Fold:
Amino acid sequence: MGGPIVCGVDGSERGARALSTASWLADRMGASLVAVHVIPKPSKRAARAFGSLTHASDAAKERGNRVLARALDRPDLPKSVGRLVEVGNPAESLISAARDQQAALVVAGSRGGGPLRNALLGSTSQRLVRSCHLPVVIVPREPDPPDREREARSLVCGVDSSEQSDRAVAVAGDLAPTLDLCLVLVHVYQPAISQAAIPASSGILPVDAERLAMKAKREGGDALARAEGLVSAKLQVQPNLVAGDPGTTLVELAGREHAAMIVVGYRGNRPLKAALTGSTSSAVLGAADVPVAIVTGKTAAGGPPHPSGESGTARRSDSTVSSNRSEHTTGGLTHGQADGRRQQAASPGGARGTQQAGKDVPRPLRGKGRRKDVDVPPKP
Structure:
């Protein structure tokens, strides 16, 4: 992963914690660090007070430079830290700065308050996650124990059978050896409800909990095997198949494994939907006491390159990787079904054919937004 580490700095305690994490990442990755402070656009009242909008903007940038100077006046930071003061929306400005700098990661602090409150309020970190084309590292509000990064032994990555998970695994597979950490792959499946827990008067049909549990374990094993095939064979990997709640389990396992960071994929839910459905990324962000890297499927130029810079092929040639997505869908149909529909439509007796049994069939006329039938004159 090339490019600098871009970190949002606002002069607060959470900004200072984000800067500490960004500095540690830059040091381990051998990357440069760029601190970005974003100030809002001057109001009309400020423009009148300073005589013009340009003078008001210049004064705001001077205050921003002072904020950056105070934030970077720390002995634990490298001396050559890049500085940028941007004007505009914080999330949009950070994304723009990361794109201009060709950054590898974006780091920001979290305001805290739990997954529901964060999603509904639309904080800067949430907007970054939803819109940034790069992995976004969100640093929690709670203070870390001393020397957490130095004592860290692993990098925990959540795994499922989705495309977003593949991207998260690829990013984690690149970060782990760079940070000198073991990669812990975790698939969490929710245990089936036992029939004994369902009241007899509920009218619910009997549930074969054991069969459902075996199916969940089999699918989880396939997802872990697929994930192992996406990382280097030289990397130390520890797969884990666990039953429980995904968000809670990932956070608890990260604590037991002395993880420096948790990496998860983001499915791109809208903020309200993510809060109500309890998405894994939101749950982890709300409960984790270590930095969380959120990997989206977005790219800077529209194409979907593999996060590791490769063509998306498995890098573990000695692993047998199974895929649960052998049939890609087109409009809710598999490609085979779609081809069959097209062939049927193109055939003489198809739904879209213009001839049927050798007779001409008139096409229906189409008006604005509705279909009209063809008027057929009565027989004489």
